[in-house]
Design goal:
With about 425 residues, the protein is an alpha+beta fold. The protein has two domains: about 180 residues, no CATH class; about 120 residues, no CATH class. About 40% of the residues lie in helices and about 25% in strands. The chain has 13 helices and 15 strands. The strands form three sheets. Strands 1, 2, 3, 4, 5, 6, 7, 8 and 9 form a nine-stranded mixed β-sheet that branches. A three-stranded antiparallel β-sheet has the order 10-11-12. Strands 13-15-14 form a three-stranded antiparallel β-sheet. Strand 14 and strand 15 form a beta hairpin. It is elongated and about 105 Å long. The protein starts with a helix and ends with a helix.
Length: about 425
């Protein structure tokens, strides 16, 4: 019956991405061998059915409907993840023209299932349980505050993973963990090359050169000054490879005024520091940080080289290594924050559908779980009819009002 209703819904209603996969719990307090308990549901005890839901629009109003159902019964004790795959397979069979993009909560979240969805011609965005690859979420959440997070791209699997930390209503920090194959990845320009590693050095004249391996597969010997940009940005890969003597020689090529430097934090693959021309500002900065602002050029070069090498080890070096591999933490406008917003805006379609279901449930104390399950599915079909009616008429009505109108139409059809 559930599958027949799903086939009718898929024929009547056109699915629009993204599609929400979730579970519904039809309230039931009687005896039942498959009664489930989900504390976060409006009624925590009841009969479980998985569904794939979306919205249809009546003007500007989004009306939820369910495309298909997968009931949890005595002979079909299916897991949440397997139910999601079954719903997807039937949707692809019934609507091969649709490339579904699913949104699901952590009960459905799985790297394996995400790969299966992609192989079936779809995509998905899922929240994840903290028990699945816990090291990954700990890494992405490193040093993140409230409304901060990180996202990383796994190119071999074409998956984006993200972590974003928020504050709950109880004023507690909560980490939102998401994986997605539905993101559009903006890749670097083909002619853009990035330093991957440095493997060797040699002396050429009065300069040192370094064998540099780029991420596009090319290799090139570069002099030390080529690792320092005009704005004072030094490549951290070079800083990590070069000895302190190499760094002293490189910085000695600058004038004494240019060597008046303030250090900032590591950002992505580069170490940023700003060159100050104002001697008084430099002296004030040095006094604040306990540095000496005096000395000849050789002394200043040694200080700078020592400070640079210190930043590639210890706590600062750990920060540099982490951020060079996983990127800096970003706020709500970063990729992790945008994924959180997308997930939050689209994972509640079935919950909204269930609120309408509870408006029109027919019995408050049913005893026969099988007939109650059947009637519950019929009511779900009525709510789907409401969604189609609202879309056709452009008028949004509540569940009870639509049920009254439907009953009136049915009575009129019986009159001679």
């Amino acid at each position: 019956m559930a599958h027949a209703l799903g086939e009718a819904s898929s024929t009547l209603l056109s699915p629009a991405n993204p599609l929400c996969v979730d579970e519904s719990l039809y309230e039931f307090e009687g005896k039942c061998p498959v009664k489930r308990y989900i504390p976060r549901k409006p009624h925590p005890n009841g009969l479980l059915v998985y569904g794939i839901a979306s919205y249809i629009y009546a003007g500007v109003d989004a009306i939820p409907f369910v495309l298909d159902f997968e009931p949890y019964t005595v002979n079909n004790q299916v897991t949440a993840q397997d139910a999601m795959i079954r719903l997807l397979e039937r949707l692809r069979q019934r609507r091969p023209d649709v490339a579904p993009s699913l949104v699901a909560d952590s009960a459905f979240g799985s790297f394996e299932k995400l790969g299966m969805i992609s192989a079936a011609g779809g995509s998905a965005t899922m929240s994840m349980s903290p028990t699945v690859t816990p090291w990954l979420w700990e890494l992405l959440n490193w040093d993140c505050g409230i409304e901060e997070g990180r996202a990383a791209f796994i190119p071999d699997e074409n998956i984006v993973v993200s972590s974003f930390q928020v504050l709950t209503e109880r004023r507690e920090a909560h980490q939102i963990k998401i994986i997605s194959s539905a993101c559009e990845i903006e890749r670097p320009e083909a002619n853009e090359s990035v330093v991957g590693r440095i493997s060797d050095s040699r002396r050429r004249g009065d300069q040192l050169e370094y064998l540099t391996h780029f991420t596009d597969g090319t290799d090139k010997w570069l002099s030390s000054d080529q690792f320092i940009d005009d704005d004072g940005t030094a490549n951290s890969t070079w800083l990590d490879f070069a000895s302190q003597a190499d760094l002293e020689a490189a910085f000695s090529a600058y004038t004494q005024k240019q060597l008046q430097v303030r250090y900032f934090h590591f950002f992505s693959y580069t170490l940023v520091f700003t060159i100050f021309a104002n001697t008084l500002l430099f002296q004030a900065m040095c006094a604040a940080q306990g540095w000496k602002s005096t000395g000849d050029k050789g002394t200043l070069a040694r200080r700078i080289a020592g400070q640079q090498k210190a930043l590639t080890s210890g706590k600062e070096g750990t920060i540099s290594l982490l951020e060079s591999r996983i990127g800096p933490k970003l706020g709500s406008d970063g990729p992790a924050g945008q994924l959180r917003d997308f997930y939050r805006a689209n994972f509640q379609a079935l919950d909204r559908f269930d609120r309408v279901w509870y408006e029109i449930r027919f019995h408050h104390a049913p005893r026969d779980w099988e007939s109650h399950f059947s009637w519950s599915l019929v009511h779900a079909a009525v709510i789907n009819a409401r969604a189609a009616w609202c879309a056709i008429t452009g008028e949004r009505v509540g569940g009870l009002e639509f049920l009254c109108r439907l009953a009136a139409c049915y009575r009129e059809s019986l009159l001679p």
